[in-house]
Write a structure and sequence with these properties.
Structural class of chain A: mainly beta
Helix content of chain A: under 10%
Number of strands of chain A: 10
InterPro entries (chain B): SCO1/SenC (IPR003782), Thioredoxin-like_sf (IPR036249), Thioredoxin_domain (IPR013766)
CATH superfamily of chain A: PCu(A)C copper chaperone
Largest sheet of chain A: 10 strands, mixed
Order of helices and strands of chain B: HEEHEHEHEHEEEEH
Protein name (chain B): Thioredoxin domain-containing protein
Radius of gyration of chain B: 20 Å
Distance between the termini of chain B: 78 Å
Keywords (chain B): Copper, Membrane, Plasmid, Transmembrane, Transmembrane helix
Shape of chain B: globular
Oligomer: heterodimer
CATH topology of chain A: Immunoglobulin-like
Number of domains of chain A: 1
Strand order of the largest sheet of chain B: 2-1-5-4-3-8-9
Number of strands of chain B: 9
Family (chain B): Belongs to the SCO1/2 family.
Strand content of chain A: over 45%
Pfam families (chain B): SCO1-SenC
Order of helices and strands of chain A: HEEEEEEEEEE
Strand content of chain B: 15-25%
Structural class of chain B: alpha+beta
Shape of chain A: globular
Distance between the termini of chain A: 27 Å
Amino acid sequence: MKKIIMTGTLAALLTFGGLSVPALAGPVDVVVESAWSRASIGMNRPGAAYMTIRNTGDEPVTLIGLSTPLAMMPEIHETKTNAEGVSSMSAAGEIAIAPGESVALEPGGLHAMLMRLQQPMTEGETFPLTLLFVDGGEVTVEVPILGIAARGPED
Amino acid sequence: MRRRTIAGYGAAGAGAIALTLFVGWWRVDGPGAPEPIEQRPMALTEMDFRLTDHEGNEVGPETLIGRPTMAFFGFTYCPDVCPTTLSDISGWLDDLGDEAKQLNVVFITVDPERDTVEAMAEYVSYFHPAIRGWTGPEGQIARIADGFRAAYERVPTEGGDYTMNHTASVFLFGAAGRFVTMIDYHEPREFAVPKIRRALEEETEGAT
């Protein structure tokens, strides 16, 4: 348990220091930068996490899903606001990232929607989030949990 | 092998494009198109609704008249847009400093089933202290949304849960209750704060 917390703190320090969390597992050449999330009120409401996913390889990569012990149903969702100013949210499906390109998960756009929380998201802690790719590759990042009113990774 | 992979991407891409076009048509021109909202919001003085604030006080349009108002719709089970809007507003209020004290700032839930007075009280406590949370019976929420010409809709999600689509703009009214302007979702802060100041200046015009 202590070890997990220390790893989390290290990852959080690296993230806050502006360094990217390296892709530790899988054959995928993917780097995840500036990951962050907001604290939750209890466990009933879904959480959201944000990050930039960069394809550093020579081949396209396709993100097909998420997994985390924090939530039973983590999914990439996309918020859209129409011409009338009405916002709606739906599953984003697969996300292809061309070589050298990146995809930003940020407020009001794509986000990792964390449904069915298994524990509250507490400010100051971190949680592991695994990105699943179509070729079977996986990338796990430690996502820092910031305050409920956080606006970005630096808050 | 590689060619097959590329062909696979091509097919998936074409499928995705076709789906996107279909979804776009459905929402914009097809049966899924929302009712057009072209009318401006009514003046607060013309509205009629009874709601409860997060401290249990009964509130209505008259609660807002006399001071400029910034109001928006949302729900506390909203993971992305609503906390972002509330954080943005908290930032604008910080930028306005003492001027912010002249403003009514109201967060109106479109999800009264889950957003009880207690839920609203806890939620707003995490943001700028000027923000008030309003909830009430479904019929009264419908009346205030109608007055604002705001739209909302309950959308079922997997596993029996639901989410809410809703107007994400922030509405500004002068002290006399007249609609001034709105701040669209994601409008840069350098546009938002001057718009709020316009609503604050309406105060003197409204008073004369």
